[in-house]
Amino acid sequence: MKINTKILKILSVVMAVAYLAGCGPARETRIKMFPKMYSESPQSILILPPINTSTAANAKEYYSTTIQEPLAYKGYYVYPYEVTSEILKQEGIYDAELLTNVPLKKFNEYFGADAVLFTKITKWDLKYIVIGGNLTIQIEAKLKSTKTDQEIWKYTGTVVVDLSGGNSGGGIGGLIAKAIVTAVNAAIVDYVPHARRANYYALSSMPVGKYHKKYRKDQNDQIIIQKVAK
Amino acid sequence: MKKIIVVFFALLIMSTYGCGPKRLYHYGSYSNTLYDYRKDSNHENLMKHIKEMESIVVESNEQGMRIPPGLYGEMGYMYLKAKNTGKALEYFNRERNLYPESIILMDRMIKSTKEDS
Predict the structure, then answer these.
(1) B69 vs A69: CB contact, 8 Å cut-off?
(2) If you measure CA to CA, which chain B residue comes closest to A62?
(3) Is ipTM strictly over 0.85?
(4) With an 8 Å Cβ cutoff, are B69 and A62 in contact?
(5) ∠ at Cα A98 (A36, A67), nearest 5°?
(6) B24–A72 C-beta distance less than 8 A
(7) Rounded to whole angstroms, how far apart are CA atoms A222 and A176?
(8) Which of A1, A28, A80, A163 could bond to B74 as cystine, CB 3.0-4.6 Å?
(9) pTM
(10) Nearest-CA distance from A137 to chain B in Å?
(11) CB contact, 8 Å: A192 with chain B?
């Protein structure tokens, strides 16, 4: 009986520690998470055609028509995707998979880009329920330097966009899940705004660039290290 | 009466501009018209997308906002698709002048547009 209480005590301590460690999102500063974004300070980003391994055939189009805007809001010069993807297509590059071993210096010579954004869409699921729905997007995004070929920022995670009414204007405000589920929104058919919202979320940990007013002032911002967010 | 008028205009201005910090750019319905054009690249959708970008330029200027990066460059490219070489060159140059990061790409576009015309 004595041993049992001891075990129970130990177990409770272990559980308490596990609970405390697991409670609340882990936080870190931007500069600690992505130091190379500050030391290299890229100004211009070239978006590569995404790799789509999800089951949704349209995912690539939804993603690529909605990624420029949030990236520009981050304060970077973003090359016009329509132009650059067409040039790459003429060179036989339809998606970034074909570029795994190409030295990225080429993108600096050809376009002038300081960094290149690689994206892999692994899941793009639209689920309808009676009073709304969810769009679940799983992506792996990486920003690589064209000077060093090194990864300078990344996001791997799942973004769940609540489709039950509410803000369609995008932006960080739109990400806050609504507590009250309203009737099915007409916008459910058009999920361009939702794709854009997902992209805003995925880019939120990225330090800002030179056109942003917080440029070189966001090093110590606390960012949440979190993989699943609603 | 005067007070009511003042309050009315104050509210009108607030409702037009919204509250909170001013946004960096104005994008209108850019991603929607672009998506429609990608799904069906016909002339009508091309012209709709160009028209949307034209109004983004007008509205950004009215609000004293910078034109979003790449927008002029894309307009040049879309005008090229619409076989309007003059406008294409004009917009490639605008992108080049507004964003020095675009010089290498825009010079390339300007050169190939001139060669093809």
Answers:
(1) no
(2) B35
(3) no
(4) no
(5) 55
(6) yes
(7) 18
(8) A80
(9) 0.79
(10) 18
(11) yes
Residue B101 within any structural domain of the chain:
yes
Backbone angles phi, psi at A3, to 5 degrees: -60, -40
Q: Is residue B97 part of a domain?
A: yes
Each of the 117 residues of chain B gets a pLDDT tens digit; together they read 566 655 555 554 444 444 445 689 999 999 999 999 998 999 999 999 999 999 999 999 999 999 999 999 999 999 999 999 999 999 999 999 999 999 999 999 999 999 987
Give the minimum alpha-carbon distance from A12 to chain B in angstroms, rounded to a whole number.
47
User: In chain B, how many domains are there?
Assistant: 1
User: CA A167 to CA A194: how far, in whole Å?
Assistant: 10
Helix (H) or strand (E) holding B62: helix B43-62
Out of A61, A68, A86, name the one closest to residue B39 (CB).
A61
Separation of first and last alpha carbons in chain A? 46
CATH code (residue B87)? 1.25.40
Query: What is Dmax (Cα atoms) for chain B?
Result: 66
DSSP-derived pairing of the beta strands A132-145 and A115-129: antiparallel
